[in-house]
Design goal:
Elements lengths: L21 H11 L5 E5 L2 E5 L3 E11 L2 E12 L5 H5 L4 E2 L9 E5 L6 H15 L2 H10 L1
Antiparallel strand pairs: 1-2, 2-3, 3-4, 4-6, 5-6
Helix pairs in contact: 1-3
Length: 141
């Protein structure tokens, strides 16, 4: 007898963040200040997007047959020219699933340079948001 599988219902991902996390709060301020930016929960973590996602809070890195969660981190689509230098830094990592598409993870800790985070988030936004939104962003500065 054949077993039927219902592929229409995905299992929900567990929530992997705390809304009161001050690091997430700083990242929210940066990301949501960009034109038309919004937040949603994707795969259990906050994702910042317009039409496409431009930043995630938290990620994972493959280790052996498993993975290690890097909860206090930001994942961004890196400028292809800057990406090689970023991935060489100890505070950066190749995130599972997204790393092959040019995304980079950056650990956020007590020594985080938030101006650099803002720059990386803005670059990722510019690579994903579309011409109209980038023009809106440029008109602000």
């Amino acid at each position: 007898m054949e077993q039927q599988v219902d592929y229409g219902r995905a299992m929900p991902h567990p929530r992997m963040f705390d809304d009161d996390d001050p690091v997430l709060g700083r990242l929210r301020e940066l990301a949501l200040a960009l034109p038309d930016a919004a937040e949603k929960v994707s795969h259990g973590t906050p994702a910042f997007y317009t039409t496409k996602v431009f930043a995630y809070y938290g990620g994972s890195v493959k280790v052996g047959d498993g993975h290690v969660r890097r909860s206090e981190s930001v994942l961004v689509l890196a400028d292809p020219v800057e990406r090689p230098a970023l991935v060489e830094e100890d505070r950066c990592f190749h995130p599972m699933y997204l790393g092959v598409s040019g995304w980079v993870g950056l650990d956020l800790d007590g020594e985080t340079d938030w101006a650099e985070v803002a720059e990386l988030v803005e670059t990722s936004y510019r690579l994903t948001a579309g011409v109209r939104r980038v023009r809106l962003l440029d008109a602000r500065t």
